[in-house]
Amino acid sequence: MNNNLRYALAAARLNTTDVAAALAVDPKTVSRWLNGRIPYPRHRWAVADLLNVDEVDLWPEAAPKRRALAEGIHTIYPHRWAIPQTTWRTHFTTATKQIDILAYSALFLAEDHATQRILTERAEAGVQVRILLGDPDSPEVAARGVDEGIGAEVMAARVKNALTLYRPLLDVHGVELRLHRTILYNSLYRADDQLLINTHAYATPAANAPVLHLTNTNDQGPASTYLTSFTRIWTTAQPHH
Hints:
434 Repressor (Amino-terminal Domain), 2 domains, alpha+beta, 8 strands, eight-stranded mixed sheet, Endonuclease, Chain A
């Protein structure tokens, strides 16, 4: 019996059906978790995000190594696709000051209407939203397409699709989009001091590469390195209208 999970559900006023619907699983699966079965990591992360608690608080026996991570390193996801959609939405929803996105296309976010709505709502609430996408006509975007094995034209088309989908955001005060011509070694998704860093690997689509969840704790921490990188790219990128 997992009483930690049971109490957390009660505190959030959610039942097994609510959790099952949010995670797209069978309610019987959630019942088995309540009875003591430990979910797969992606489900543990999704439940923890849904309940706004730490995974270790719900399943202390499931993630003992997480406490041994270095300062500023919160979690390491094995693949971007392993991160539940609810986690991405919660990540941006929590921002109160700053949202930054650095990628070649970030098409997976552009295609999610809920994320688009969250970015709009956050900007209207006074959060600065800065989006950096690759210039679809640049050799850097073409090279990334070749590296991923999808081809230069396909990669450029993905960026153009993303730009079309992000277009309504440009009418929202507080949102700015720029195009960069940079070789990226990672994509960056920032919500205040929380960063999701999607590493890039040769011959590997970004969705299959690992993601680091970092917390910006001080000027010497790993998160500050990526924030500095974003700032330098932003200052050289061209505004997109």
